[in-house]
Structure formats: structure tokens, C-alpha cells
Amino acid sequence: MADTANNTERVINVNEILHQLTNEGKTRNEIKEHYGLNHAEAKLLFGHPKLKGVKTKKSPRIIIVDEPIETEPENVTPINEPSVSNKHFFGQEIN
After folding, report:
1. Rounded to 5 degrees, what angle do the CA atoms 18, 20, 21 make?
2. How many Cβ atoms are within 10 Å of 1's Cβ, its own excluded?
3. Does residue 19 sit in helix, strand or coil?
4. How many C-beta atoms lie closer than 10 Å to residue 37's C-beta?
5. Distance (Å, rounded) from C-alpha 28 to C-alpha 8?
């Protein structure tokens, strides 16, 4: 692509543009500005068979985490204490 300022050609890698669209979430306008392309150059670039019809894939900028709510278990007897039913064994109290 010719640079109108100094008439030098630039090399733009199609796979790099594809990566910017699909992985980095850059829009065509952002890529156009990044490379300093005019409208005709951008049209030529995005008309390439590998880029034609490819949509920008924006990544969400948030992460949603659904943590379970911790609740205390009900009716749990600690192991080191005898339960109520074991405190009285054959009419005798056990300590």
C-alpha cells in the first residue's frame, strides 16, 4: 500500500489483521487509524478473502463469579461430645 506522504509501500500482514479483529477486538476503524489507511486502502485491505465478512469479536471486560452461599449445617453434633441419646445409657448418666 502506498504511503501518500513519502510514496513508500507498507506491508500489512493479513493474519495480523485477522488476529486484531478476532482476538484483540479491534474494529475496522481502529485498525484503519492504527495503520494510517485512507478509505480506499481500508476498502482494499478488508476486501481480502480472509478478511471479508469477518466480524470484530469483543471480549467482555468483566468476569462474573457465582459463589455459593455458605450456610451453617443444622442439627450437627460435634464428635467429641456425646449426643443426647448417648448421655443416658440404661438409666445411667455417662460423662
Report:
1. 65
2. 17
3. helix
4. 20
5. 23
Q: How many residues does the chain have?
A: 95
49 contacts 13 by C-beta, under 8 angstroms: no
Per-residue pLDDT tens over the stretch 16-61: 999 999 989 999 999 999 999 999 999 999 999 999 989 888 877 7
The CA distance from 84 to 82, in Å, is: 7
C-alpha cell of residue 64: 462474573
Q: Average pLDDT in the 66-90 region?
A: 65
* Cβ(35)–Cβ(12) below 8 Å: yes
pTM over 0.85: no
Residues 1, 36: Cα–Cα separation, whole Å: 11
Structural domain boundaries of the chain? 1-56
What's phi and psi for 93, nearest 5 deg? -85, 135
Are 46 and 32 within 8 A, CB to CB? Answer: no
